[in-house]
Amino acid sequence: MRSPAAALPTHRSQPDAKGFFGRFGGSFIPPELQRQMDEINHAYLRICRSHDFIRELRSIRTHFQGRPTPVYYCKNLSDAVDGGRIYLKREDLNHTGAHKLNHCMGEALLAKFLGKKKLIAETGAGQHGVALATAGAYFGIPVEIHMGAVDIAKEHPNVVRMKILGARVVPVTFGAQTLKEAVDSAFEAYLADPVNSIYCIGSVVGPHPFPLMVREFQRVVGIESREQFLEMTGELPDNVVACVGGGSNAMGIFSAFLDDPVRLHAVEPLGRGARLGDHAASLGHGEEGIMHGFNSIMLKDSEGRPAPVYSVASGLDYPSVGPEHAHLFSQGRTVAGAASDEEAIEAFFRLSRREGIIPALESAHAVAYALRLAKERVDESILVNLSGRGDKDIDFVMEKYAAHAERGDY
Question: What does the pLDDT read at residue 400?
Answer without folding.
Answer: 95
